[in-house]
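FORM 7B: Structural annotation worksheet

SECTION A. Query
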Amino acid sequence: MPYDLFAKAFLKDPENLKGFLLTFLPDHIKTHLDLDSLKIIPEEQVSLSRKKREIPDLVAEVNLLSEGKPSTKAHLYILIEHKSAPDKRIYLQILNYITALNERSLKEGKGYVPVLPLVFYEGDKPWVYPERIEEIFSVPEGLKGELFKVHVVDLKRVEDEKILEVFDILAGLGCYLYLMKVEAGNFEEMIDMVVRAVNRLIAIGEKGRWEIGFLITISEIKFRVDGEVIWFNILDRCGEEGVKMELKSFWDRVGEKFYKQGIEQGKYQGLIEEARELVLEAIEVKLGYVPEEVRERVVREEDRGVLKAWHREIILAKGSEDIFKLFEN
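SECTION B. Predicted structure
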């Protein structure tokens, strides 16, 4: 009897499927399955409906046993595929069906569900491919147990000692890791981290110094603070005179160069608009709102130097009175 007729006429009956699984599944698997709960799932519900339509031969859902007792909260899918000849593509099919089944499960609010693949093979030649999917890859033995793990690098929780190691190899990545640990709205903590990173970069030497620009750039992007405000605070907090001299030298060589290029390229008005936005945002962070008369004063200001000075003073302000004094005249 052809397999498709066998599957439709025989295996799609839950009782027949139960008998089939009791016969062919290993005992250490059967002890975890509540085979009385078997439920056949229509194949079209788990088909891959993209470029190529593929439909699994048979899919069933079964509850798991918890301490020997049936559980309705934990279940898995049994996927049965038929092959009449050894087919290396079976692994890709299985992985695709696992994805489709779990997309269905997540859509139904069930969360991720494990899938137990079963190949119903009736070929003349012996099945030559491995049982474990990871065994199909040609990799060193030590990697085979790692291929289907999710190796997470938790950037916000990397230990400072590890970051210092990273600095010596990739200073830019070290800077990024430092800033990942800072909450977006915490300006003081951000400056402290930047100062620590700058000290480390300068200690590395010439290669480290050229990463300072990258550090300032990602600080501007993450914290929406004008780069010159960051420079001002770094210089103010770096205790060693040698460090200050290094930073001033770097700014003379690089910072002003980029600033002048921006003006030459017609970006001066954009820099003014950006400075206005930073001032208004800083006021809103400090006060919780922006008074209308203050907003109008900021929008009228055309001097980028004045806007930068306001932004710096707002950040350093101790209270609302210090902020209002800036806009009295």
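SECTION C. Observations
Residues 261-266 have pLDDT under 50 and may be disordered. Residues 156-325 form one domain.

SECTION D. Sign-off
Analyst initials: ____
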